[in-house]
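Good morning C.,

I know you're traveling, so I'll keep this short. The sequence:
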Amino acid sequence: MRIGLLGGTFDPVHLGHLRTALEVAEALTLECVYLVPASVPPHKERGAVASFADRIAMVRMAIQGTPLLGALDVEGRREGLSYTVQTLREFRDRYPDDLELFFILGTDAFLDIHTWKDFRSLFELAHFVLVERPGFTSESLESYLDSLEVAWAVTASGDYRFTSSGNRLIRKTVTGLDISSTRIREIAAAGGSVRFLVPESVEAYLTEEGLYDAHGEHG
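The tokens, ready to paste straight into the viewer:
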């Protein structure tokens, strides 16, 4: 069983998130990529603007009709900060031993991974799928891997393998959509339209609920 996980605040989920998840699922022949909203993101000082209930609701709306994508509320059912290592361990405990788990993240997030809880354990629990940004080089990646003090090697396919676990770090380029949740919130707060940035169902929901209006009623 080959499963992908794409974590994030998803405040709100947008078309860039969805396109990334879909393209990775197709490229790696995954059975499903699950979007996993963080309940209390440890690396965001302000936390999320919308509640976890609103954010998981929007993710579920966004993936409707797309069999390769799913939504998981696992981090919303835990107390305290949302740590990726806990989510990966829980997933491993829940599913059979023959599970291949692929954790998807962008270059910017990966280059901050040394600040994550038990970050070296992450490489023991899942393959990493690194969604590359323009200007990112093999040299900068390899230098950063060396700084993490984890043993790695280049594979015949040009990916990277973590020596202790055999898990791989796979580099992928996806269709670049220059969309950010921050910008969407700014547009919504100014009374602008977020059409073509988020799915129509998400647009309707955040408008009806006033999630990001200028008065911060839901912040």
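Safe travels,
E.
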